Amino acid sequence: MGSSRGRSLVLFTLSTLLLVSIAGGLQSDELLQDDEEFGLEGGRPAADPALSIPTRPPIRGRSDPDLPSGSPDSKSVQFSLEHRFGGSGFSPAGTFTARLKSWSHGGQTLTKLRFSRNALTEEEKGAFERLLKEDGYYTIRVPSNVLNAPGRDFIFSSVRARCIPRDSLDEHFVIHTDGVNIMAVNYGSAGACQYPRMLKYPAKWSFTSFTVLKNSEQAPRTPTFAEELLAGEDGLVEGVKPPEKSFWAKYWMYLIPLVFIVLNAMTQAMNMPEEQAAGQSTQAQRAPSTTVRRR
Amino acid sequence: MAIRACLGLMILLFSSTISTALFEDQVGLADWHQKYIGKVKHAIFHTQKTGRKRVVVSTEENVVASLDLRTGNIFWRHVLGKIDCIDQVDIALGKSPSKSLLHAPANMNVGKDNLILVFGGSLIHALSSTDGQIVWRKELSTNSLEIQQVFQPRDSDIFYALGFIDSSEFVAYYVNYKNGEVLQQSKASFKSGFCGEASLASNDVVVALDASRTYLVSISFRNGVITFQQTYIPDLIPEFSGKATLLPSKYNGILAVDIASSIVLLRVKGVNELEIIEKINYPSAISDVLPLSKEQQALAILQHDESRIHIKVKFDTDLTNEVLKETIQLDGQRGNVEKVFINNYIRTDRTHGFRVLVVMEDHSLLLVQQGEIVWTREDGLASIVDSTTSELPVEKEGVSVAEVEHSLFEWLKGHFLKLKGTLMLASPDEVAAIQAIRLKSFEKNKMTRDHNGFRKLIIVLTRAGKILALHTGDGRVVWSVLLPVLRESETCGNPFVLNVYQWQVPHHRAMHENPSVLVIGRCGHNFDAPGIFSIVDAYTGKVHNSLVLEHSVRHVMPLPLTDSTEQHLHIVIDDNLHAHLYPKTSDAVKIFLDEMPNVYWYSVEVGKNIIKGYSLEIKGELDMAENVFQPKELWSIVFPSESETIALTATRKMNEIVHTQAKIVADQDVMYKYISKNILFVATVAPKASGEIGSATPEEAWLYAYLIDTVSGRILHRVSHQGAQGPIHAVVSENWVVYHYFNLRAHRHEMSVIEIYDQSREDNKDVWKLVLGKHNLTAPISSYSKPDVTVKSQSYFFTHSVKSMAVTATAKGITSKQLLIGTIGDQVLALDKRFLDPRRSANPTQSEKEEGIIPLTDSLPIVPQSYVTHALQVEGLRGIVTTPVKLESTTLVFSYGVDLFFTRIAPSRTYDSLTEDFSYALLLLTIVALVAALLVTWALSERKELGEKWRYKVQLSVLDE
Q1: For the segment A43-57, what is each residue's pLDDT rounded down to a tens digit?
Q2: How far apart are CA B184 and CA B177, in angstroms?
Q3: Which of A172, A178, A233 sits opposite B786 (nearest CB)?
Q4: Which chain A residues are Cβ-neighbours of B713 within 8 angstroms?
């Protein structure tokens, strides 16, 4: 095992060396537009790990347009989040920024989601407080397609307002996407929401947002292992046999009663001669007595 | 070694399943099977010459069957596929002319190769009557020709094909019968257009209705010259208003016209001469004509008079007098006569006798002869829409049990026979007697509740709007009722049944009150049609309450709440998404308002690919008389329509009981099941692959499986299967989903399982927390908490395609589960859930083996012994229903399609009771024998001891001396 690992390590280093040397030999004239993206090229979109970014003031928020604007590989998209307090209408609440990557096979995926939330106005704060009092629903919505928003349907999601306040207003977004489409938003508190819900005001009236972007995963496939199984069988027949147990270990349960029986028989045999002798003597005594009786 | 162990384990498993299978003599003990054919569309009687008294029928369930005329039993039967509709049946080698889609010549001779003409649209096929081969095939026109009639004058080699082009032009073709060559063709257009079918009145006159359905148009086509003649119907029948319909008929010179209130028989004397023969008031039905001789034909007219039916048989030569007039009495639960088929026979006095086959409104079939109903078939049961179960009445005091039971002597005799059977002493006759006793056990057919809860009523709703209660013991119909509100009426044009729910299940007052069921229907097939609501007593079939609702019915949600009279609360969502609460009592509203903040519901819009979640709210004042609540949209999930379409949704059964939330896995570890009643399973497929298997390539087919929480609208899990497509079947239970689909890459059906576990309760495993009481095991779970779940899944190949899937349900949920799979062969297969465990691995460890994990295999095994239906087939299988009973180990299984099949199964065998054929007599005998042996040995030992004592005493006395 260890040797094989060593061998593979050697092989790996050799191949990398080879690759490097080829790269050294060939002066590539390819324009590398984005080093970061290059590393990801060829990776499966479905295998993209979910990104979890607690959003503080956006670091690179609007710096995306400074990328080559004509880039076919990725571009920046923006879509807005709107919210509703109970029965009133929707109002803007924040902006999502994401990178839209195009793949060679024609698909598009969203990556690097960032979110900046607008600060709550006094009016909104009042509305939220009212919502907390009546245990109402705080509803958010995003467009179902990030490209031609808001031409299409909206994706709604709601939570009981009392689930959100902790120290600040903690919210958690899980955005399920399929290409440029948003299918669903799982919106809710960042942790557990106790039931019955207690009325509690946050210490700080600002949102702390956590966002996660999710694509679908492939179902695990049934392995076809019938051949492996057969191959394994041949090897195993020759292989390790269980160590032979000692005679005593195998048959102790029969031996112990046997010993007992033998012992018992021996003690009986020891007693027998005495008894016989005693018996004879009694009979000898009895015989005359009967004769006496008969008389 | 491991392989050998695996094999050993497999053998052990198989042997264990074998022992759960039935023995031959156990068939029919707990199960019953009933065969049906469905609503009869056409019937053809075998002629006298063939000597067999049979009738061949084709039905709306696509069944062709031959029935015995004496008993109504099925002689043979073929169930065709869903898309193989039968339009017409006819007997080719008898004497039975017909003029519809099928034309069998009247002058056919047995043994000679005749041609049968089959036509539709503009095509005519000629088939050989001996082997069914196509002799010739002719397309008469490339236009939109609809051939209406094909007929052949006697003893000629040509036939006429008559039809309409674009409903405005009449065409007559003269075609060579032998080779299909068109000899002559004539056309004429009619400017007001035709409507519906044409009826052949005589050899050169056809009658049709014009587009407005108020004119009768007679068309003459003698010698290739077509002339039209119109007759205004009100001129002929003064009371006519509205629209007329031509009844399809095969009369010579007679025309049947259905006007709104009655059926009118007209005689066609010439092209422009129509004469009224008779007016028959509704409700009534007319049979086709039955030729008796060359000149004489007979027809039957059935007319309703409340619960009686008058049958009249007339000859077409003299329609004013009846040949036969009979009256039969019917029970009120069969509705009106829908169809009549007439047949004749020769009486003992050499005169003509007639019998009629009657199809009733509830789809049942009757044979009437000599004024009596010879037999009836309850064929509505072939089209069950929904079913529920009801407990039987509690055994009341005063009802003597002795009446039902055998006498003591009989009981003893039975047990003595059984004992003989067990000891292999019984003669063949006695073995037969034992079997008969077992099959006819009075115990299972009693009309009272039993200790184990095996005896129940299955309440089924059929497409005809009839409710029937079947006894689980032998499947007999206990009561049946044709709901008046579900019959066609002025207020409700096109009634349509939806579902049946349990409305009231009395527990506190079970001795005095009967349970009742709720039947929901709709007037018409559109969602906006008004709903129908009816409450029926489950013991007697009495209709308590019946009404046509003012609103429509989109969903019905039974709530887990009951009011003070133990009526279940139901929410009906109408087309405007308003929620209506039933029953409409203030008590119910009060109970509901307490729970309203926790009521959520969702709607799946399949066409739009949207799932939406709602809660309920009250806008303004609540109208206590109406109890209407408004929806409040909470969440939505939009599937991108270019890549996914919703194929299937499935939820857990509302009444399912889960015994434990924890699953103990190997190494004494615990996993917590994510058990939520709000889990919705959704499967979507690629739009291209939404058709049949083979319509898409593996690259353009995919399937997504979703687990969605319906309260918060969260997607808990989403997984894709590349190269997979429908049809999809799924079943959701406890914390798992099993779904079945087709894998295009592997060219095989596949079954996948998803199990979902809760991670947020993982820290409960800490013993110290438990000791100190700091655990959150008793805390209520909120759907708004952030879910912390893990998912395990696995896919297996499966040999069969599936028609229906269900899962067993037991009273406490302790017994392990089995999947019930309705296979393509119309059988029900029980598959242990352990085979679909996602934790199966190729080489399970010792502890996993102890836990009962089966080594991983590529495909799921199909053990022939595990067919629940053993040797039987439930033809046209559509649904499988499982019901728990009081005995934890057992489940009742009711599967329906064209046939019905009922049985009870024990997924882990009956570990909690003795089997029914347990020999109590043998046990008793053993005990008696043991007691006797005890007494004898005791007496013997006493005597011996006494002897010993005497000897001892003698010895002592001797010693004394």
Answers
A1: 333 333 343 444 443
A2: 13
A3: A172
A4: 156-158, 184, 186
B688 falls within a domain: yes
- Judgement on whether residues B357 and B426 belong to the same structural domain of the protein: no
Instruction: Single out the residue of B614, B625, B664 nearest to residue B850, CA to CA.
Output: B664
Contacts of A177 (CB under 8 A, 6+ apart): A109, A110, A183, A213, A214, A215
Residue B61 has pLDDT above 60, yes or no: yes
What part of B 764-783 touches A (C-beta under 8 Å)?
Answer: 779-782
Question: Is residue B760 domain-shared with residue B884, that is, in the same domain?
Answer: no
User: What is the arrangement of strands in the sheet containing B245-246, beginning at the earlier edge strand?
Assistant: B245-246, B254-259, B262-270, B273-281
Average pLDDT of chain A, as a whole number: 68
CB atoms within 10 A of CB B628: 16
Exposed/middle/buried for residue A85 (C-beta within 10 Å: 0-12, 13-18, 19+): buried
Find residues 180-209 of chain B whose CB sits inside 8 Å of chain A: none
Burial classification of residue A104, based on how many CB atoms lie within 10 Å of its CB (0-12 exposed, 13-18 middle, 19 or more buried): exposed
Secondary structure of B142-207 as H, E, C letters: CCCEEEEEEECCCCCCEEEEEEEECCCEEEEEEEECCCCCEEEEEEEECCCCEEEEEEEEECCEEE
Could you write out the DSSP letters of every residue in B756-779?
A: EEESTTGGGG-HHHHHHT---SSS
The torsion defined by the Cα of B264, B267, B273 and B279, in degrees rounded to 10, comes to -20
Contacts of A196 in chain B (CB under 8 A): 780
Task: Give a yes or no: residue B477 inside a domain.
Answer: no
Name, in order, each residue with C-beta under 8 angstroms of B801's C-beta and a sequence gap of 6 or more. Answer: B727, B742, B749, B823, B824
CA B730, CA B750: separation in Å to the nearest integer?
A: 12
Cβ B786–A190 below 8 Å, yes or no? Answer: yes
The reply to whether B711 falls in a domain is yes
Mean pLDDT within B572-589:
89
Of B447, B468, B485, which closes a domain?
B447
Query: Does pLDDT of A61 surpass 50?
Result: no
Number of domains chain B is built from: 5
What is the pairing mode between strands A207-214 and B702-709? unpaired
A290/B9 Cα distance (integer angstroms): 74
Is A179–B3 a contact, with Cβ atoms under 8 angstroms apart? Answer: no
Instruction: Please say whether the beta carbons of A142 and A185 come within 8 A.
Output: yes
Pairwise CA distance, residues B390 & B696, whole Å: 46
* Chain A touched by B752 (CB under 8 Å): yes
Size of interface A-B (CB pairs under 8 A): 146
In this structure, the answer to whether residues B160 and B196 fall within a common structural domain is: yes
Residues B277 and B411 both lie in one domain: no
Over 50: is that where the pLDDT of B864 sits? yes
pLDDT at A14: 38
Cis peptide before A196 (omega within 30 of 0): yes
How large is the ipTM? Answer: 0.72
What is the domain extent for residue B691?
Answer: 646-798
pLDDT, tens only, B453-502: 888 999 999 999 899 999 998 888 989 999 888 887 777 778 888 999 99
Of A155, A219, A224, the CB nearest to B719: A219
Which residues contact residue B127 at a Cβ distance below 8 angstroms, ignoring those fewer than 6 apart? B115, B116, B117, B118, B133, B134, B135
pTM for the complete prediction?
A: 0.78
* The pLDDT of residue B397 is above 60: no
Do the Cβ atoms of A188 and B780 come within 8 Å?
A: no
Q: Are B715 and B637 in contact (CB under 8 A)?
A: yes
Supply the pLDDT for residue B407. Answer: 62
d(CA B267, CA B299): 14
pLDDT, residue B213, reads 77
Cα distance between residue B889 and residue B813, in whole Å: 9
